[in-house]
Amino acid sequence: MDKSKVRSCDCAAQEMLSRAEADGVELSYDRYDAMQPQCGFGQLGLCCRNCAMGPCRIDPFGEGPQVGICGATAEVIAARNLLRSTCVGSAAHSDHGRDIVHALLAASRGQSEGYSIKNPEKLLAVAKEWGIATEGQDIKQIGEKLGLTALDEFGRQEGNLRFTSRAPAKLQAKWDALKVRPRGVDREVVTALHTTHMGCDNDAGSLIRSCVRAGLADGWGGSMIATELSDILFGGPAWVRSQANLGVLKADYVNVLVHGHEPTLSESIVAASQDPEIKALCEKVGAKGVQLAGICCTANEILMRHGIPIAGNYLHQELALLTGAVDLMVVDVQCVFPGLAKIAAGYHTKILSTSPKAKFAGVEHLEFNEKKALTSAKELLKAAIAAYANRKPSAVHIPEQKEDLVAGFTVENTFKMLGGRYRPSFRPLNNAIIDGRLRGVAAVIGCNTVRIQQDSAHLAMVKELVRHDVLVVQTGCSAIACGKAGLLLPEAASLYAGQGLNEICEAVGIPPVLHMGSCVDNSRILMACVEICREGGLGEDLSDLPVAGAAPEWMSEKAIAIGFYVVGSGIYTVIADPLPVLGSAEVTRILTQDLEKDFGGKFAFEVDPIKAAQLMIAHMDAKRAALGIAKMIYEPRAVETVGKPLTLANSAAAGGA
Ligand code: NFS
Ligand code: SF4
After folding, report:
1. Is 362 exposed, middle or buried (CB count within 10 Å of its CB: 0-12, 13-18, 19+)?
2. pLDDT for res 415
3. Which ligand sits nearest to residue 196's alpha carbon?
């Protein structure tokens, strides 16, 4: 089979992969091939470098050493490594959240050039929730107080993270009883890292509980703060139409890609791209304007709030450069390949790093100044315009593929709207689940990985779920995968969804797959679950709900942190590649079995996306049975009708009413 087709199921990607091969450009996929066989000790979690007596490794075949030099067992080593990864993931999301707090503070104090508080209603709501006095104060004063309070959430030494009180009472009680309710975000990460020092916590169960706690500090702390304060500062998303895939680049425009994660940067670039000075400069070099598009989660942020198109997800970052049409790629933090610079060098593309937290050898650094956000952003765009002049038209090859999509779904603007504008509540959603029109809700999230054909697992899983009347909510690169494949359109309901889900989508005008934002916005999904629970009729805890989570192409340590807060919040979670713990039977058992007794949620590892979807469906059915609502109105949609418009004839073939 053609190598490009093995590597991605996206036509635009395949076109670029073939181009890379023809031009001899080395990609992450090639480096993956060259890396085979990968280290089995690492994959199994059996390698330890935590002190200089090591490195130590445990022989999984039982013939060589069974403990490290200090006596650490496979259990300790695997659990300790996993905790370190969880901390990194939690830190990444949370440090992003902290930067949003700084931007809110700057805006409130009148010290920022480009930002202002766009969503005072949400500001007031969160201020009230946190007990911040608002009477007689203007929005900026309240913004400053809220910002300072939020900042304290990171360094808080005692007490509970404020947003943990949003969880159902039963869940809060579980967290308290198991001593995993997070205090400050920084405190949890530091304490957890401490416990992984050699000769500290050497009990696998205790280490995994620390994983849950560090994860919860992300989901109900850093990530939730990032989402809520981004909504306050930049405005809450609204339903928006846009497009995704490399075809959004334009030959006659200055093409600027923003790649990374923090909306503080990308929001300013959006504003700068509409600046008259920038427009005039574009005309001067013969370009019609700036075409802005995103890669990875920063793309999701500006898609959700401004409808800026998406160039692609994680594995598109190298491929985008091969179009020869990218004049500037601006990067900030997380998920940016250090290998990009070498590819860009073969084209006219300029890459600029902007964050003091992420510099890249061979890449020019133009530090983004939050206080001078607009000026900073304009400087970046001027560099793009200068690079445009060096573009070689003969090297330009933009794939045609781009797909329409609808995004911008949030707890506030979606689920509450299911009941119509005049009686916004979660009641209609809960009723649809109780009546058996909807089986449940699945969150399909996370990355791409070179280990799996790009996007294929996301698409297969999502199609299998919606066929079974499961409403799918998405974030991150998974949402982008579905966007590129046309699943984020209202019309997709008729093509892919079961009869019950299709009826709901048609009545409300929503797609069967809802794009809810970037990976920090998984906190929106947590809150949707909280609201479903609060609405009543589906149990008293998140673990009672017919819901499940999945990351079918995960690769990042952030995904591990997310996994832990989702599981620790009571939700069954299927991930594709196993966590690197299989070298320890005990740790594997704790993650895939024991956690459920404590938290109501657990992990499952399943690489086959259809089997993984079926595990999620079986879980939802078990929860439905426990709630006494096992009966579904419709049979699942027949596989043969998937991809064809749902008509009376084929809905009857699908089992019909
Ligand atoms: Ni999430 Fe977003 Fe994508 Fe994975 Fe990376 S961009 S924060 S980590 S690869 S989904
Ligand atoms: Fe080896 Fe123990 Fe040191 Fe790890 S902490 S490297 S297992 S001696």
Report:
1. exposed
2. 78
3. 2
Contacts of 294 (CB under 8 A, 6+ apart): 257, 258, 259, 266, 300, 301, 302, 303, 308, 309, 310, 311
Q: Does 446 share its domain with 553?
A: yes
Task: Write the DSSP assignment of 278-342 as a string of letters.
Answer: HHHHHHHTT---EEEEEEHHHHHHHHHHH---EEE-TTHHHHHHTTS---EEEE-SSS--TTHHH
- Buried-state track 579-597, b at ≥16 Cβ within 10 A, e below 16: bbbbbbebbbebbbeebbe
pTM above 0.85, yes or no: yes
Identify the domain boundary among 341, 364, 395: 395
Cα of 195 to ligand 2 centre, how many Å?
14
Residues 203 and 329 both lie in one domain: no
In a domain, 401, yes or no: no
**CA-nearest residue, atom 2 of ligand 2:** 70
Residue nearest atom 7 of ligand 2, based on CA coordinates: 68
Three-state SS at 159: coil
The residue to mutate among 41, 66, 67, 70, having the most atoms of ligand 2 within 8 angstroms of its beta carbon, is: 70
Ligand 2 centroid to Cα of residue 586, in Å, is: 19
Instruction: Lay out the sheet containing 547-551: strands in order across.
Output: 513-515, 470-474, 440-444, 547-551, 573-575, 603-605
Ligand 1: residue whose CA is nearest its atom 4: 447
pLDDT, residue 175, reads 98
Is any atom of ligand 1 closer than 6 Å to the C-beta of 476? yes
Please tell me the number of the ligand nearest to residue 46's CA.
2
The reply to whether ligand 1 has any atom less than 6 angstroms from the CB of 513 is no
> Looking at the structure, do residues 19 and 137 belong to the same domain, yes or no?
no
Q: How many domains does the chain divide into?
A: 4
Cα distances from 167 to residues 121, 164, 307, 450, 541, in angstroms, run 22, 6, 31, 36, 9
Q: Which residues of the chain have pLDDT under 50?
A: 652-657
Instruction: Please tell me the number of the ligand nearest to residue 69's CA.
Output: 2
Domain with 295 in it: 246-395
Determine the Cα–Cα distance for residues 124 and 134; give it in Å rounded to an integer.
Answer: 8
From atom 9 of ligand 1, which residue's Cα is the shortest distance away? 447
> Measured in angstroms, how far is the CA atom of residue 148 from the centroid of ligand 2?
41
By the 10 Å C-beta count (0-12 exposed, 13-18 middle, 19+ buried), 29 is classed as: buried
